[in-house]
């Protein structure tokens, strides 16, 4: 009969293996096989779909391994930029394979499941520039504050990794600093409109 100590050790080992596998799966990003199971593709479409997604997944994994192998603290901002560029190029190729309805679903699926850079995206930045009627200097300060937020949050990654509650605390801390910095850049009216536009920009933990 297995002794209590051995049982506890075996249970801990299983937990470690399950957790490791779970983390590994999360790192893989978008599950393109799942999306493929949700739509109907012709044999020709399926062949091209598999070729494209496998090729880009390999490139994404290579980018991650290169970033990890550089030693010291991983440059997660640069890795996030590369990931965005890869997804954009993949979408361009996929648009030549899928019809309009399939492509709309594909883009929606990727948008909902891909890890995004923790920052105001280009669409929000453009909206802020237009609606707040920002000068070039103000817009440069907005971008600088946004970049600083992203870098600070990514630099703290090793501290909050795997802990959504702690990650949320860091996100909110750096977001507060971003807003305080921008309050000094905007006029009172601009700042009021700014807060209205970004009110839905909240921390989104990993599923």
Keywords:
207 residues; 10 helices; 75% helix; 0% strand
Task: Describe it.
With 207 residues, this protein is mostly helical. It is built from ten helices and no strands. Helix 3 runs antiparallel to helix 4. The chain is globular, with a radius of gyration of 21 Å. The two termini are 39 Å apart. About 9% of the residues have low confidence.
Mean pLDDT: 85
Number of strands: 0
Contiguous low-pLDDT stretches (5 residues minimum) are: 9-27
Largest sheet: none
- Helices, by number, come to 10
Helix content: over 70%
Task: Reconstruct the topology from this structure.
Blueprint: H1 4-27, H2 32-38, H3 43-69, H4 76-94, H5 100-113, H6 122-131, H7 136-155, H8 157-160, H9 164-183, H10 188-197
Helix pairs in contact: 3-4, 7-9
């Amino acid at each position: 009969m297995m002794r209590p100590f051995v049982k506890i050790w075996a249970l801990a080992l299983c937990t470690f293996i399950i957790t490791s596998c779970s983390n590994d799966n999360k790192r893989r990003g978008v599950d393109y096989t799942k999306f493929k199971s949700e739509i109907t593709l012709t044999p020709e479409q399926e062949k091209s779909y598999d070729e494209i997604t496998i090729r880009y997944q390999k490139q994404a994994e290579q980018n991650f391994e290169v970033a990890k192998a550089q030693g010291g603290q991983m440059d997660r901002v640069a890795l996030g930029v590369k990931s965005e560029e890869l997804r954009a190029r993949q979408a361009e190729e996929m648009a030549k394979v899928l019809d309009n309805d399939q492509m709309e679903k594909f883009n929606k699926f990727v948008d909902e499941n891909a890890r995004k850079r923790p920052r105001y995206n280009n669409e929000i930045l453009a909206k802020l520039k237009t609606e707040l009627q920002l000068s070039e200097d103000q817009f440069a300060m907005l971008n600088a504050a946004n970049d600083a937020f992203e870098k600070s949050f990514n630099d703290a990654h090793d501290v909050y990794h795997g802990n959504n509650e702690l990650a949320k605390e860091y996100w909110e801390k750096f977001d507060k600093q971003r807003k305080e910095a921008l309050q000094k850049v905007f006029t009172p009216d601009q700042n009021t409109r700014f807060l209205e536009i970004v009110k839905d920009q909240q921390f989104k933990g990993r599923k």
